[in-house]
Structure formats: C-alpha cells, structure tokens
Amino acid sequence: MSSRPKQKRVLSLRDLIAGYNQLPVISIKNLEICSGDVVALVGESGAGKSTLFAAIGGAINPISGTLLIEDKVQSPEWRRLNISRTLQAFPLLHWLTVGENLTLAAKTKGVTLPAPSSILAHVRAEHLEGKYVNSLSGGERCRASIAQAIVANPVVLLLDEPFNGLDGRVKREVADSVFKFARRRESAVLFASHDIGDAMAYSNRVIVLKTGAPTTIGMEVASGEFGSLEKIYSFLEEDGDI
Amino acid sequence: MNMNRLLNSTIVLIVTLLGNGCGNENNSDTPTPNLKEFEILLDWQAEPTYLGVYYAKSLGLFSDLGLNVSIIQSWGANQAVSSVATGRYKISTASGGATVLGHNKGAEIVSLGVLYPNIPSVIYGLASEDIETIEDLKGKKIGIYPNSITVNEFDAFLKANTLSRSDFDVVSISGSDVPLLASGQVDAVLNYWEMSPAAIETNNDFKLIRGKRTFTFKLSEHGVGGYGLNIVTSRDVLNSDEGDLVKQVAEAIIEGYRRASQDPQNALELFFNEFPEKDGDYVREGFRRVVELLGENFGLQTVEGWQTTLDIYDQLGLLDVEIEADSLLP
Amino acid sequence: MEIFSSQSSLKIFRQEIGRYVTSVAVAGIAWQITVTAFDVPKYLLPRPLEVIAVLFKEYPAFIEAMYYTSKNMLVGGSLGIIAGMFTALILASSKAARWILEPYLSIFQSFPRESLLPLLVVWIGFGAGLKIINAMLLAFFPVSVISLNALVNTRKDYIELVKSWGMTPQNILFKCRLMCAVPSIISSAKLALPYALIGSVLGEFMGGNDGLGNIIMTSSATFRLDRIFASILLLALLGTLGVGMITFFQNTVFKRFYLDN
Hints:
Chain A has 242 residues and is an alpha/beta fold.
C-alpha cells in the first residue's frame, strides 16, 4: 500500500446520525474516505454496519449531520448509479448466467455494458461469463457478485462480508482485485467483516465500531501500521466489545 | 280458561311434542327387538315410483315377516342389479332391461314379480304449438341419459318406427332435465313418465298449451314392448335358506302397491310424513301415474312377457348369450 | 437450454416410458390370471385381454374420443393455467387487489367446483365449450393459489439484489418474482393438468356425445365394462402423458429456473 496515487476525497461524514424511524443507530463525528481506500468495518453483528451501509447507499436518510459524496449532497438518482453493493452470501439470479446477471444489472441501472467479459476481467473471472450461478464455487460467486456491483463503475463500493467462507488464497485474490478496482476507478471501497484478521489483512484502514446507543466509531487503525492488530484487540478486550 | 289449566295444557303440549319427536326417531332408526335387519334396495331415489315399498313398510308388512327393513336409495338399475348379483343386497327393484342385461353379463338375476307390465319411458318436452306427433320431433334436440337403461328402449323405439338417431339431434345429458328443457338446451328428453314429466305438469311456472304443460310420447304405445319395473333377486339367494323369505318380501312389496293404489290418500299421507320436503302436487300426480302404470294385474309375470323383453334386446344386438326366458323367473 | 440437457432428458423420458409400460403390463397379466383363475363374473371385472381387444376392434371410436377429450383437457387446462398465472400476477402486483380478491380464491377453493356443472350446462349447453370451461375452472385454482404464494414469497436476498440495482416494482415482479416462481408454477401446472382432465371428463358425464367420458356413460347402460376399462386406460394414459409433457419441459426449457440447474 505504499505507492498510493494522489487521492481525492470520496466520502465525508460529519456529525452524522442515522437510524430508522428517527431512532439513532449510528453516530459518526467525522469520517473521510478517499479514492483508492479499501476500508474495513469491524463490529459485532447488529453493531450498525448495515445501517452505515444503508445511510451511504441512500436507502435511509440521515437524521442529522451531513453525508457528502465527492463533496456534494448527491441525489438518490446519482447514488443509485454510483454507489453499489454486494450482499451477504453473494446472491445472484440463478436462472441467469453470470454474464446475463451483469447485463440485467447494467440494463436496470441504465448503463451500457460493452461486454460482460470486460467487467469480469476486473475480478479475473472472464471464464465465468456463460456459467450458471449454482455451478460456481464460493470464490467464483464472490467475484461474480463483485462484478455485478461494478457494472456501472461505482464511486463507492460497499461489500457485505465479502470474505465469508472463502479460503485464504481466494480471499487474497479477491482482495487484490478489489484494491486494483478501487485504484483504477478512483473509488472508495468499504467492506463489513466480523473477522478482525480479514479486516486487517485485506484493507488499508480498519474502522472498529463501538457498540452503544448509538454506535460510534471506537477506533481506527491503518492496516499496515506496526502493532495495529494488537491495538484493536486490546481496545476490544478493555471494552468487552467482541 | 284459568291459569292452571292453561299451564297444564301447555305442559301436555310440550310433552306431546317431545314424545312425538322421540317416537319418530324410534320408528325409523332404532331396531325393534326380535326383528331381523333387512335391506331393500331401490334402483333410484325415493320417488313416487317406490311409494308401494314405503307403504308396505308403514303398514308393518315387513315386520309381520319378522324383518326390520331399511329402504336403500341408489342411482340406477344397472348398479342395483350388479349389487344384487354380488350378494351385497338380497332384493332390489330394477327395470326389465337391467334384469335382462345383467343376466347377459353372467349375473343370475331372477325376477320375483313385475310391477310395471309396460315400460314407463316417454319422450317428452315442454308443451309447444308445433309438436303433436313424433314426426314433429325430427331435427329437434333430444336429451338422453347415456348410462340409463332407457337408452336401449330409445334405440328399440327408433327401430320399431324405422327412425334413426340421425333423424334427431340426440345429445347425452346428466342431472335434472327440467332446467335443460326450461333453458332450451334440449327440446325433448327421454325419461320416466311418472318422474320429471309429472313434476313439470304440476309446476305452475310452465305455460299451459292445449291444457297441458308437456307433450308426451309413451314408448310403450309406439312399438316398444317388454316389462318395466320389477323386483329382482339372485338365483343364489333364491336357492339359499333365505329364498322363501325374499319371495315373501316381494309379496309384501306387491301387497304394499296394491293397498296404496286402493287407498292412495293414506299412502300419500304416510309418504309425506317420511319425506316432508317433497312437493305434494308432484308426488300426488306422480303416484296417480304410477297407479296407471301398475294396471290391473301387477305382480304377475309370464314367460311370454319376459320373452318379449328379451327379444327387444336381442334385436338390438345387445345379447352375447342365449337367455331362456324362464331362467328369469323363480 | 443446452442441447446436452435436452438429449439426456429425452433419454430419461424413454426410460420412464419403458418403466410405466412394464409396470402396467405386469398388473395386467396378474389381473388376467386372477380373473381367469377365480372366474370373476364379467359384470364385476372385464378381462384385460377383452379390454385390449375392444381397444383394437373399436380403435377409430376410441381415437376420436381420446382426441376430443385431450383437446378439451389441453385447451381448458392451458386457459386455466394462463388465467391462474395472470390472476396471481395481478394479486401479487397490488396489495389492494389482494385484499379485495384473495377471499374469492379462498371461497372458490372451499367448495367443489364440479357442483357448478349443472348450471354451466344450462348456460352454455353440451358442446366442447362446457368441457373446456369446466377443465379451465378446475385447473385455474391450484395454479392461481400456488403461484400467488410463490410470487409473494420470493427469496429476500434476490429482492434485495435487484432493488440494489434500482429495479422498479413492476420489473421486480416480472424479472425476479415471476422467474423465481417458475418451479412452483410448473408444479401447480402438474396438478392442474390432471384436474383439467377430470374437468373435461366430468363435462362429458354431464352431457354431449363425444369423448372418453361419454363412452364410459353410454357403456354403463349396456354393462360394457370392457369399453369402460378401455376408456379408463386411455384416460390414465392421457393424464400421465400430460404430466410427462410438463416434466419434459421442466427438464429442458425451464431447467434453468430450478436451483439445482
């Protein structure tokens, strides 16, 4: 992670309080995420990772505070096109091939897709184009799922538990693809993970959510920094969070 | 009337009502001690046709034989004949045709007495200005019950009158024929004279034309001979130690019809008690026709009479085996 | 659809036909031996050989009747299946429609639709229309009820996925819910087609002069049990072929809609 190109600010959250039915679930004082960043969100289930994703994705509106993307309050229409996500367990429509899933995703988003293989190439999965979803291995599914999320070249990519159930080598390959995409497209990638090891290994920043009412950011470390894993563990232990 | 008497008579009335209710149930359901359970099968539902059987029961003619009789209703003579042949029922009513055809299929059916010396089948329809003769029916839509023995009688009728099915628009029907006639889905129906033709004749919803609500052609008056309703059992039962008993039951049924035709008023009243839901006018008219169909000498049967019945089915090509007419008699 | 998969289904189809023919033949032989050995009277059971003989002897009449019955089954059944799917789609598309119309589905489910037959005869007569409408009526309900259930209970993660693409509710219904419901709809069609056969035969019982049901009725007037059993055999053949046909489509054209495709 040493040769970072010039970064621009993609996401900035300030005094953001978000939740459902005016009930705050997360409260974030200040968070900035830049292009090329791959940020891991760690926290126990129910800690507010999905709420944060929903707030960024535009599924819910902030109760208060500001959420800027590329320094602007973006319209829902813009967000629909420029923020995309993968879902837990990587669902894809099983009656379509991977290529057809991508085509339908692109068509629905209103973008023209030159060829599904060009997108699949980003995640090194060109060979999956004609395959049905159910014949895919866990790693292939993950790649296909990321591919459907990047058909419209999103500015922000949200990945929900992307490394769940993958073995080490595959995780590494997927993470490489994600990093490459983030840098090439100058996108910001956030992924949620319950596994601190994965979070450390496949990101450049780790944000630990601290459970409370509402959830706040407990701490942040840079993944490459010496002793950062120990920092997280000791934080969590003293806090009794995980 | 003072208060006390009013109260007393009210109590008496209530007790009487309660007593009546229980009494009715006793009559019909609970077996009377020392009487043997016995079932009589009807080849159709409890229509005026079978009033004699019900009257015989009401008069106690069966309990005189030591029997507590249940009268079982069914949906057709062929099934009734088969049920007797299998031994499920020992005695049943059936049409002459069903008796003959059952015999033909190896069911050794024996007639214990003929109630209708002629078939009761008619072609009938709603009275109309332009139908007076059978010729007028040509090209009209005639509904027949395809699983009924009457179909064979219809074919015999066609043969006897040098007609063919193509002279009419013959269509198979099922269920009640009255709505089919009323809605014009058919112009005429082949049915039993004492059943729905009687029901229509007594129903004021239908128009009177020339003093009648229906036109009727009796097949028996148009060349179709042979026996109608008769009482059947199987050769096996007849040869068993119950053989005499079923003969006596048949006698009791015939006696029931005799007494009913002598005193229709009383027979009808008892029938209404048992079937209060039945339309009074229809049952009265139906039974009047039954009495006419029974004629003078009902209960009797002859070898010649059965031979005529056999000939009809033979001429229609429906008999695979040679049947001796006297094998149909006890 | 891959050619490979349809070829293998053809093979399975052939194997299944062999299996069915064998098992029917075994039963037929056992039956023939039993009725001959015990001398079962003909008014109770015909001999299988007589049944086969009457099929060969009167085959033009049987073929004509089978054509009539199968045509009504297929036309009525297809109309019922299409109408059932259409109804399910309408109900799935709108909560208001579901609120007002769903009780009708329950009510019509709760009594035997056959009881409408005498009315239908009076309204539309004895022709093929009666059989087609009755077949349709009987086929409609399993399809509408099962399809509706499948359409409103689509996998949550699929809905979430297509929503994340920004799919409109109408497109979600057609491109996601309907596609997901295909296996259920096909299962319901497998139920519906035999119902359609029952419907058209009951219609033939009610009236008219054609079809296998009519042969059954007319043959019972003359105790022709051989004809009755021959008709039953052909009806069973029709029903089995109908369901087999749907299974064939299931394994070929619609294979991709099954999770284990």
